[in-house]
Amino acid sequence: MNLDTNNHSVFKLNYHLILVVKYRKRVMDDTISNRLRELFETIGKNYHVTVNEWNHDRDHVHVLLTAKPNTELSKFINAYKSASSRRIKNEFPRIKEQLWKEYFWSQSYCLITVGGVSLDVLKQYIESQGQK
Is the pTM of this model over 0.85? Predict the structure, then answer.
């Protein structure tokens, strides 16, 4: 496993993020998803967020991302959702027909930490510390 570093720490912080289109409208296609990913990567640079994997369905996206310990993920996600909503609705006017208000994304999201090993393996490792 490759670990990330900064001046005083070593870390590997991976997250699975799921963002849902407002009202679960099925407006997503490959072109829109690719543009949303470009915006995610651009905005992510300011927050030290990197995309490892991206995929979509018609009404949501899945993102596997890496962040640094000092990244405020909730601020990043809100900044991304706000900026991408404006841009995507301006660049793809057909979306306005199905999403008539200013928002593209649902207010909620799902963010799950992703580890390199299962919780059971990690628990066993911690329990075995100090034993000879």
Answer: yes
Long-range contacts of 54-58 (CB under 8 A, 24+ apart): 56/28, 56/30, 57/28, 58/26, 58/27, 58/28, 58/29
For residues 11 and 3, the answer to whether their CB atoms sit within 8 Å is yes
Q: Give the angle subtended at the CA of 117 by the CAs of 38 and 132, to the nearest 5°.
A: 150
Percent of the chain with pLDDT over 70: 96
Distance CA 10, CA 107 (A): 33
Q: Which phi and psi angles does 117 have, rounded to 5°?
A: -135, 165
Question: 16 exposed, middle or buried (CB, 10 Å; 0-12, 13-18, 19+)?
Answer: middle
- Domain 4-127, CATH among 2.60.40.1470, 3.30.470.20, 3.40.640.10, 3.30.70.1290: 3.30.70.1290
